């Protein structure tokens, strides 16, 4: 019994960590939707099941790759901007007379 619970907890913790990664949810949603739309439209116009499935999966993979790169690039760019802003705020607070070991300054420097 305990091994089943441990295995279940490991699965849940993996899924939570995976879903907590930035851009994962949006990437899968856009990829799934794009693949479904392309596959459905392809089937509607050609009535070839195999070709439609292949096109749908191809669109899924292409959308996933392209959107993942785009989203991660924007995420890291935003993180750099936030880091610069926090450094500017920390230096401004030091200029205005805060002590270097002040908890507010240490929060900005993270």
Automatic annotation (TrEMBL):
Origin: domain of life: Eukaryota
Transmembrane segments: 28-46, 53-70
Protein name, per record: Cytochrome c oxidase assembly protein COX20, mitochondrial
InterPro entries: Cox20
GO terms, biological process: mitochondrial respiratory chain complex IV assembly
Organism: Tetranychus urticae
Gene expressing this chain: 107368435
UniProt entry keywords in alphabetical sequence: Membrane, Mitochondrion, Mitochondrion inner membrane, Transmembrane, Transmembrane helix
Main location: mitochondrion
GO CC list: mitochondrial inner membrane
Localisation: Mitochondrion inner membrane
Keyword ATP-binding: no
Family: Belongs to the COX20 family.
